[in-house]
Amino acid sequence: MSTFLFRRLLEAIPTLLVVSLTVFSLTRILPGDPVRLLLGEEPDPRAAEELRHVLGLDRPLAVQFGNWLLSTIQGDLGRSIKDSTPVSKLIGEKLPTTIELAVFAMAIAIGIGVPAGLLAATNRGKWLDGLVTSGSLIGVSIPNFFLGILLIYLFSIRLRWIPPSGYVEFWVDLPKNLSLMILPALTLGTGLAGALARFTRNSVLEVLSQDYIRTALAKGLDERTVLLKHALRNAAIPILTVMGLQLGGLLGGAVVTEQIFSIPGFGRLVVDAVLTRDFPVLQGVVLIAAISVFLVNLLVDVLYALVDPRIRYR
C-alpha cells in the first residue's frame, strides 16, 4: 500500500504542473488590467508603471511563472493584488466553509441516493422503480440556481422556517450554522442524490443477476442480508467512484450555490478574483482545488481495497 501511495504522489506532480501552467496562462489572457482596476481607467502613467513593477507584471511571462512556481513549491502562494493579503490566508479562511458545504451535501446525497437506488433495484419494473428513476432524472436535470431560488422562496419567504442566506461558523453558533447550511446543502445534494440513485440502481441490478446471489437466496438466506451484505458490498466500487468524483467537484467550488446563498467559500473567492483580475488568488485557488480532487481520488482508491478484499495494491 505504501508503494502504491508513493507512486500515486509521484504521478500527481506532472498533473499539478500542467494545471499550474494552464491556469497561469488562462489568467493572463483574461480581458482587463488589474492595474487599471486598482488605479482607475485613466491612471497616471508613472504610478501605473511603478505599480506594475511592484506587482511583477512587467516581467516576461516565463519569469513570472517560474517565480510563482518556485514560491509555491516553498509553500508561498503569493499575495493578493487587491489588498496584499497572503493567498494562503485567504484560502485558509474560505476552504473550511466549502468543505463543510461539500460534506453536508454529500451526506444528503448518500442518505437519499443510496437507499433510493436500492429500493429501485429490488423493485425492478414496478411503480416504485419508475418513481425513483423519474425522481432521480428530475433531480439531475434541475439547475442549481433554479432549485436554490425555489427553496429560498418556499422555506424562507413563504414558510419563514429557514434564513435565506448568510453564514456563521459552526464553532461560533452551531444551530445557526446548521440552519443556514441546510438550504445550500439541499440545493447541491439533490442533484448528486439523483445521479447516485441511478448508479446505485444499475450497479445493484448487475450484482443481483450474478449466480452467487441466486445461490445465497436458494440456500435460504434472508433477502435483506443478501442485499446489504453481499449485493451492496460488491456493487460498492462504481458507487464509490461516483461519490469521489462528486465530492471532488464540490471541493473545487460550488460557485453558483455559494453566490445564491451568500456563502463565503471557494466559489465566492473565485468570482471575486476573476472580477478584480487577482491573478495570485485565482492561481492559488485552482491549484488547491486540483490538489483536493487528487486527494479525494486517492482516498477512493484506498477505500476500494477496504471494501473489496480482492483488490490489493502493490
Note down, in words, how this protein is organized.
The protein has 314 residues and is an all-alpha fold. The chain folds into two domains: 2-73, no CATH class; 88-307, MetI-like (MetI-like fold, Orthogonal Bundle), CATH 1.10.3720.10. It contains 14 helices and no strands. It has helices at residues 2-28, 34-39, 45-55, 61-73, 87-122, 127-141, 144-158, 174-208, 211-218, 223-234, 236-251, 255-260, 266-275, 279-307. Helix 6 packs across helix 8 (174-208), helix 8 packs antiparallel against helix 11 and helix 11 packs antiparallel against helix 14 (279-307). It is globular. 31% of the residues are buried.
Give start-end ranges of low-pLDDT stretches: none
How far apart are the termini? 6 Å
Strand content: under 5%
Rounded to the nearest angstrom, the radius of gyration is 24 Å
The CATH homologous superfamily of the largest domain: MetI-like
Q: Which sequence of SSEs, written as H and E, runs from N to C?
A: HHHHHHHHHHHHHH
The total of helices stands at 14
CATH topology of the largest domain: MetI-like fold
| Molecular shape | globular
Mean pLDDT: 81
Which SSEs are present, and which pair or pack?
Blueprint: H1 2-28, H2 34-39, H3 45-55, H4 61-73, H5 87-122, H6 127-141, H7 144-158, H8 174-208, H9 211-218, H10 223-234, H11 236-251, H12 255-260, H13 266-275, H14 279-307
Helix pairs in contact: 1-14, 5-6, 5-8, 5-11, 5-14, 6-8, 7-8, 8-10, 8-11, 11-14, 13-14
